[in-house]
Amino acid sequence: MKRTITPEEWSPVGVSSLEQAAEFAVRSETNGVVVAGPGAGKTELLAQRADYLLRTGICAPPRRILAISFKRDAARNLEERVAERLPKEMASRFDSWTFDKFSKQMLDRFRKGLPTCWRPVDNYELSFWIKEQNAGRILENCASALGLGLGDIAHIPRREWYNDVFIGAFPLLEDIAEYSDDLEYRLATAFWKGCLVRQPSIINFQMISRLVELQLRMNPAIRNGLRATYAFVFLDEFQDTTNLQYDIVKTAFHDSSTILTAVGDPKQCIMTWAGALDGVMKTFANDFSAKPYILRRNYRSEPELITILGSLAKQIEPDAIEPAHGTGKTSGEGQCRVFEFADDRAEAHAISQLLDYSVKQENIPPREICILCRKLVVNYSQELFRSVEHRAEGYGIRDESSLQDLLAEPITIILSDAITVATGTSESESWSRLQELLAITTPKGKGRRTASRMLSLGIDYLAASLLVTEPEPDKLLEVLQGVLAVFGVERLKQQFPQYIQGDYFDKLMTQFCDNLCTRFVSEASPLDGWRTALQSIIGMNSIPMMTVHKSKGLEYHTVIFMGLEDAAFNNLKDPVEEGNNFFVAFSRAKKRVVFTFSRRRFGSQQRQTNVQLLYDWLAAAGVQIEPADQLDFLNGIPSIQHE
Ligand SMILES: Nc1ncnc2c1ncn2[C@@H]1O[C@H](COP(=O)(O)OP(=O)(O)OP(=O)(O)O)[C@@H](O)[C@H]1O
């Protein structure tokens, strides 16, 4: 057992210092709410706080820390930051989950704590059809179940009904029969009942949140168990918390000794001293008497980019808090450029030139570059893919939207590690992850050495089988199941409780095999073919391309934002929402941001009328649009070598 240290002995790990407000938040022993702009080190603050609490023993065994994020990437990122720094026995008391995973796990473990009228059957299915967009169909189905005609429900606004009545505005009553006789509530309860009594029941994550809140409210034993387990709770990206999720947090931890730390960006992304605590962050601060901490440093971006961020913020909100570089540095290598092209072909050609230059001349790893677009990637990628194919050697561009979730799954990581080791590449990291997994899945009483020998045999079996396996999903699945048997599928599921219920685990396995087989290319040997396919899935040499929404929480050396034009931003009637998107895109960059405008795209003329506001903001920050066809494009962009 590692010795704990005193709070006075503790200092930030892996970074030289924290800004004062961050240091206070890290060491605080009361509820807190940290607000900060992009790149301020919010995630880093949580990693430091975990380090502080575990290393000093303020969070003493067997108690744990629960960190809840919105996206799997963010949860994994935080988990990795903690695992890298702390000894294993301390890091293992840090649970970094998404809200969905936390809720689903609670429901699955304590399903019987729900009254029978609200209890889904054991093998319930997750429905992706039950969602706001289908509110009209849902409402019509409910009406027909109650023997009503379309005329009876014509006056009910569909989406409002879904959000305010069916899902949103109220925690569930303990007895489903107690709902008022009001038509909208009758329809909502009819739908709940219909979903729950089906064999199997069908529910979505929003319904799960509601059920978990009820489960916690009705069962003091479950609530107290949760409070006893978790001495500290971290809530990341708290500004995005929905009222459903907030209700769970409140029921679970209000008036308890568990200490909560919420961190977030104010909703509108522009912080003002007066308005930093807004919306759900303000509610949390009031309900939990949480002390506010406001951070104003930016550790991510070069000073030139921070200056532009500050200027953009002031354009939108004159009271905005001006960000400062984390180290006080006032100049660096930051660049922001906006280029106008005649059409998307010229744009694609120029971007492919820049990518080639960045990877080959500036030595920027492909994964340090990101191509963003406001909406559907596929609309922007085709011309670019064609252009890049001609010059890319050793790298490619990859649409991340489809794979991001699959790649964050533990089972994908295990299978990828096994294939990596079996095909003989970058063995050490993958091998040690597999060994660690083996250590936790090996039943007590079975020798470590025997288990390790079994793993080696399993990998040998995999290597031999891959040599003769055709790229057909069923065959690959069989081979991979063979290697998973070393860990024991049931023991793996116990380790990753999201796989216990339903057929989610099997679906992921199939998805992984399908993807790998699609990417298998006949190479010199089948092993090379599988290795290339895996690298293509993991995207080791790929430049990621994604929507701004997906990029939240991520950072890159260079960000290229395609299509700063009306077709992408049709929502500027809501400038706060779109200004927010623009900010997120801009603030992902450490050193370089390039925006593009193409006069023709999707076969039609593109305009800057609705987006003029964004161009005005950039112009006020000193960034002017440049006509790329009149420039020697690449020579106009100063080199930034990757260190
Ligand atoms: N105190 C610090 N000293 C040095 N570097 C830091 C510090 N805090 C954070 N960083 C670095 O700054 C970058 C941004 O940090 P982090 O991702 O935690 O910010 P964030 O506020 O969560 O960002 P965002 O909300 O914009 O995604 C990371 O590369 C991180 O390693």
TrEMBL record:
**Which Pfam families does the record associate with it?**
UvrD-helicase, UvrD_C
Annotated positions binding ATP? A36, G37, P38, G39, A40, G41, K42, T43
Q: Which reaction is catalysed here?
A: ATP + H2O = ADP + phosphate + H(+); Couples ATP hydrolysis with the unwinding of duplex DNA by translocating in the 3'-5' direction
Q: Does the keyword Hydrolase apply?
A: yes
- Gene Ontology biological process terms from the UniProt entry: recombinational repair
InterPro entries per UniProt: DNA_helicase_UvrD-like_C (IPR014017), DNA_helicase_UvrD/REP (IPR000212), P-loop_NTPase (IPR027417), UvrD-like_ATP-bd (IPR014016)
List the EC numbers from the record: 5.6.2.4
**Keywords, comma-separated and alphabetical:** ATP-binding, Helicase, Hydrolase, Isomerase, Nucleotide-binding
Q: What is this protein called?
A: DNA 3'-5' helicase
Per the record, the gene is: uvrD
